[in-house]
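Chapter summary example: a protein plus iron/sulfur cluster.
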Amino acid sequence: MPAIPFPAKRVTRAVAQSELAILEETYPQAVTALDYDSPFTLLIAVILSAQCTDARVNLTTPALFARYPTPQALGAAAQEDVEAIVKSCGFFRMKAKNIIAAARAVAESQAGDVPQEREALEALPGVGRKTASVVLSVAFEEAAFAVDTHVFRVAHRLGLTLGKTPRAVEDDVVKLVAPDKLRHAHHWLILHGRTICKAPIPLCERCPVKDVCPSAPIVAKTLAKKARTKMRATIAKAKKKRTRA
Ligand code: SF4
């Protein structure tokens, strides 16, 4: 499947806002798919979710938190024991190391709890801007917008950004969404990316945004080209077969 190019231009602010309004209406209850019951369990789940599905993380964290229910307990855990529990999440050595170190840092912090400031969060092992944004927006209901692979792709396809990096995409989207809706906007885009605006082939015919999305004609053109190429190959193969007969 040839890659579907992103639109070369951003849509107007009016179009961007109508796209976002449609997504808001389509996904009014969108929340994180990760199971958590505290900022600490969310923080650990988000670290584990890098390059892994939320469903897989949700299968892993119950055993992890049953054995290590507090930052103190996880921070004092043996690396190999944690590795054995998180193995199915991928990159398990690095993730085990990071969650132990992050838990220890939280346990040893002055407040003894997950920090609520971006700078302090990003200082934790294994925590980058995206993880900090998820914790800030989901656990603390702060106006933050995390850009993962789905958000990056959907924001580009909708023409909300031409940003080459997650930070550039974040900066563009933040300008389009009211602060009180920002933490929800991440979930609209992520859910849309998982269910309809999929990689590599988006399901435009089922998409509520298709009438305004600048990618809809690009997708149609790319798929039509692919169908023509396939048909030409089939005809050529049939001709070759006839010639040989
Ligand atoms: S119309 Fe297609 S490309 Fe545009 S948002 Fe919908 S599924 Fe994605």
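Key point: The mean pLDDT is 95.
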